[in-house]
Amino acid sequence: MKNSLFDKPNKKLRVKSIVSGALGGVVCGFFGAGGGMLLVPLFARWLKLRDKTALATSVAVIFPLSLLSAITYAVKTDFSVMSALPYVFGGLVGGIIGGKVFSKVPATFLRKLLALFIIYGGVRSLFF
Predict the structure, then answer these.
(1) pTM of the predicted model, to two decimals?
(2) CA 51 to chain centroid
(3) Where are the domains of the chain?
(4) Residue 123, class by beta-carbon neighbours within 10 Å (0-12 exposed, 13-18 middle, 19+ buried)?
(5) Are 2 and 50 contacting, i.e. CB atoms less than 8 angstroms apart?
(6) Which of 49, 85, 114, 117 suits 102 as a labelling partner, its CA being 20 to 30 A distant?
């Protein structure tokens, strides 16, 4: 894998990776998830990962961050894990489908689709 932390010692890359993860964690903690919207561009542009590698790495990073955020919300708010279960089932089905389709879709299309989702989310947040 290009630019892996495990290829060779690279202090600058490690620092960038830790900062990227911390920023993703903050976004995930503030908004309940969505850290991938920040992590994918950071991984692709700042860490110079290939687009598909950046997307896949983001998914791997977001899982534990989302789990930690959910636990924090469950402990500190009136969040009910049981009320989230129907969404978890749908998310699992969607994740399986997305994972299977992922390898068949060109990276440029995925990057543009992600950008559209970010724009859509931003517009909805600002105006609706």
Answers:
(1) 0.70
(2) 13
(3) 11-127
(4) exposed
(5) yes
(6) 85
